[in-house]
């Protein structure tokens, strides 16, 4: 049987979008066909789930290092694992920087695929980092991209031959977990929201995600929808500043960190989903895609998305939601008011979003794409 070695820094029990993406890909591979080589989790993550590795349906080899780097030591261990486990393909959980190991594994394995996310687009804009990306593209068989935006930027850093070999591979959405009726009533009761119109934002609290713009827009929303509530779900380094900005607004509720198992219920607690992300640091801090928009759509919510990077790829403008300038509170407020004051239109957008996600963004579809990438080369996506 063909076996794949997944080399990654991003793997549970650490939490995050890339971690979930890589884990879902691994567990959807055929039984006995995957080995994972990854860094050690941070102490708090390990303590939260010390038996995570033992529960996986595939071997997990943990390096002692907290971060794997494309060093001679890591390259030697990767070659050793590939040989011992009889792996004939390699999947890099994130192209930058671990895809730089590909040159040393050529000849040992038949195929090498490097996943890209949002941060590689930042690499593509920096002289030294873009040179590294070019090398990764030239030594792997395929560099993946999330959507049109990331493909456009990444292709500029790759050689023409590597750019032609790029293929689209984006995370999927579990539409059985993210669905209308996933437990939103319990979340509303927990936070005393009752039957109020609720705007929900589920995301890590960092500047790029735009929760501060939501808070700045909120007084304008309340002027038109006085009983509305804003439910800010998640935690992160920007949390104290956001709580300070919302001081005195009783209609803004912060949940703090929530278990991953409760994320569908928190989406379901809203009437509208909003995350007005914006690009920062001259294009180095950018949204790669924005899976939370697709998860919200699967839950039947209309979405208000920022226009950063690939976020618009996760929205059908005017059909499943609105794309706005995430740096300005005015456009955000107008989009939210329009949806909250027209619940029939909002419900139609939510239903259209769920249909679109179920048809186009399923994990089964993603797993089939990966099958093709690890097998024979496929045709380029549009």
UniProtKB/TrEMBL annotation:
GO terms for molecular function: glycosyltransferase activity. Keywords: Glycosyltransferase, Transferase. The keyword Glycosyltransferase applies. The keyword Repeat does not apply. Residues 16-177 form the Glycosyltransferase subfamily 4-like N-terminal domain. CDD domains: GT4_PimA-like. It holds the Pfam family Glycos_transf_1. SUPFAM superfamilies: UDP-Glycosyltransferase/glycogen phosphorylase. It comes from the Bacteria. Its EC number is 2.4.-.-. Residues 186-356 form the Glycosyl transferase family domain. This is Glycosyltransferase family 4 protein. It comes from Nocardiopsis codii.
């Amino acid at each position: 049987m063909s076996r794949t070695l997944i080399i990654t820094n991003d793997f549970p029990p650490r939490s995050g979008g890339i971690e979930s993406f890589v884990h879902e890909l691994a567990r959807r591979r055929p039984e006995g066909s995957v080995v994972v080589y990854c860094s050690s989790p941070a102490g708090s993550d390990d303590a939260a789930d010390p038996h995570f590795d033992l529960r996986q349906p595939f071997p997990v080899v943990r390096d002692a290092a907290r971060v794997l780097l494309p060093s001679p030591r890591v390259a030697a261990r990767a070659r050793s694992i590939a040989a011992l486990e009889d792996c004939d393909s390699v999947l890099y959980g994130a192209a930058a920087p671990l895809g730089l190991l590909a040159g040393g594994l050529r000849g040992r394995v038949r195929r090498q695929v490097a996943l890209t996310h949002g941060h590689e687009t930042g690499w593509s804009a920096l002289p030294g980092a873009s040179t590294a990306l070019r090398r990764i593209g030239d030594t792997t068989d395929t560099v993946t991209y999330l959507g049109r935006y990331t493909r456009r930027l990444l292709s500029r850093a790759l050689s023409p031959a590597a750019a032609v070999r790029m293929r689209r591979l984006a995370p999927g959405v579990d539409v059985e977990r993210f669905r209308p009726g996933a437990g939103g009533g319990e979340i509303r009761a927990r936070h005393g929201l009752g039957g109020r119109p609720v705007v929900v934002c589920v995301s890590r609290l960092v500047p790029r995600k735009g929760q501060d713009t939501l808070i700045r827009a909120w007084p304008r929303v309340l002027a038109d929808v006085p009983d509305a509530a804003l439910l800010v779900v998640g935690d992160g380094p920007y949390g104290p500043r956001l709580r300070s900005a919302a001081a005195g607004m009783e209609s803004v509720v912060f949940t703090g960190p929530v278990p991953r198992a409760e994320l569908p219920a928190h989406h379901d607690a809203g009437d509208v989903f909003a995350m007005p992300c914006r690009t920062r640091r001259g294009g180095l801090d950018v949204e790669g895609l924005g899976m939370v928009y697709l998860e919200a759509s699967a839950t039947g919510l209309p979405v208000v998305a920022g226009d950063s990077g690939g976020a618009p790829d996760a929205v059908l403008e005017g059909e499943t939601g609105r794309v706005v300038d995430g740096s300005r509170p005015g456009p955000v407020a107008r989009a939210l008011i329009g949806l909250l004051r027209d619940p029939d239109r909002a419900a139609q957008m939510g239903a259209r979003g769920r249909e679109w996600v179920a048809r186009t963004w399923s994990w089964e579809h993603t797993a089939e794409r990966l099958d093709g990438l690890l097998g024979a080369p496929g045709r380029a996506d549009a």
